[in-house]
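Methods — Computational structure assignment.
A single polypeptide chain was analysed. Its primary sequence is given first, followed by the predicted tertiary structure written as structure tokens.
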Amino acid sequence: MLPRCTDDLPPLQGRGRVEPADTQMREELLADPDGGDHFWLLARLDGMGNRQAVAAIARAAGVDPSQVSHAGARDRHAVVQQWFAVPKAMVENPGQLPGAGYKRQMKVLQVREGQGPVTPAAIRAMAVRVRIRDAAAADGFARAEALLAQLRQNGLPNYFGMAAMGPQGSHARWGKVVARGGRLPRSVPSGRRDRQRYVRAWQARLFNTWLAHRMRSPGLQGLLSGDLVQTQCGGPAHQRGVALVASPDEYAPRVASWEVTVLGPLFGSGMEPASGLAAELEAEVLRQSDAEPNDIAGGRRWARVRPAAASVELVGKDIVISATLPVDTFAAVLVEELVHGDRHLL
């Protein structure tokens, strides 16, 4: 089990993620598509995986699935409104695009013309609505408000959710095998894209391992000498920067005010290195894993995120939490902070 930010508070006594409709997510664009060289499709996915959606759009467009762009895989155990794009020049019959679907689990809501492919940079935020069933009894509403207030103050740990690890964590397990130079079982797809997907899942698990260490010490708001931090977190992406922490005491007030946040390691080639105590911890995580994912691009990821526009609502016997999260945050992590579930995989 991974440490939670709200472990010191009583959880909601209810059930989250009973069915896909209990978790609803909607990508919010930074700017509306207004003409360009791609068709942009807004699709509603109901309990459907990202790869299935890509395949359905590729069939309708008559293109290879590699030509379908999006801002990242979403939780398949949810109802998601997600944007996809395909190059206009490759689509022989655009009239087929609105009919892209799969067994009533996918419906195209809009087809627009936009410039370039859909990338994470095109998405401003993710609007999330989470239903916790049978949680309204007794002091459920007060508990929900207290949990949400703590997450707003201290942050939501930016763990990767189970969706990033593959079914029952299988992609992460195979990713470790690939990273160590081992051979995959014959029953496991092993094409180049498959192997990259597995290593990315292993990269995600290593980030979760690192973040679990940080949650225990120095804490989600804590700093170590040599940390890399994102500056100007509340401003536009083009105004943000990266700084190296020489003195944790100097940066502590800026962390508390949400001006900066620690950047955790996405181990891989080209990852910007930390130094000092922060680098020692990252090296220890790699040493214990015995499998560094060098074959994919590395980077940095926020260690915590702040739910925005957060609210609590009573709906019959249920409690509904609404919030806006960064595009790469997993709604399942928010649910676990509310109900203290045990669904993360290390």
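Note: The helical segments are 50-61, 140-154, 170-179, 192-216, 248-256, 276-289, 331-339.
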